[in-house]
From TrEMBL:
This is GNAT family N-acetyltransferase. Pfam families: Acetyltransf_3 (PF13302). Keywords: Acyltransferase, Transferase. Residues 13-173 form the N-acetyltransferase domain. It comes from Terrabacter terrigena. GO terms for molecular function: acyltransferase activity. Its EC number is 2.3.-.-. Gene3D superfamilies: 3.40.630.30.
Amino acid sequence: MLRQPVRMLTARLSLRQPALADAVAVLDILSDPSVVQHNPSDLVTELEDVEALVTQWLRHWERHGFGNCCVFEEETGRLVGSCGLRWMTIKEDRVLNLMYRFHPSAWGQGYATEAAAALLHWAQESLPAEPVVARIRPTNLASQRVATKIGLRRDPAFDDHGEDGLDWAFTHRS
């Protein structure tokens, strides 16, 4: 089993495996309608629902040795978002789904780009043959900018319909 480092450091961030104790801060992020504007089915308003979500994240870590991370400002220790990789199937292909969600107070600071780049680098080093796919709604321009800044490109071969509509795929495949 591959093992993502327990804690990854970037210039300004610390990414680590989530803990149930993080659920309150994750709830603060995922209960904000602006955070899930492009994925409204991901809105979570109850602590028990976030605890169940964090438990799912932890199960992925247990099975695969990597997964969704909680992202903290290194300077303040404040949980500002989540960013991670998880296995999923798109059109019968097994891929690594790269996702990122951040609190609005952290938007515009490059945190999503910094965290996503660190995880993409880890995936390219640890699982070089596996496609990494960021699934992004066509109207989510901010998320598309993050994907392209870290070197992902539109890959219509992986476009698919998600729970909230069409997902465009951005990958590192040539």
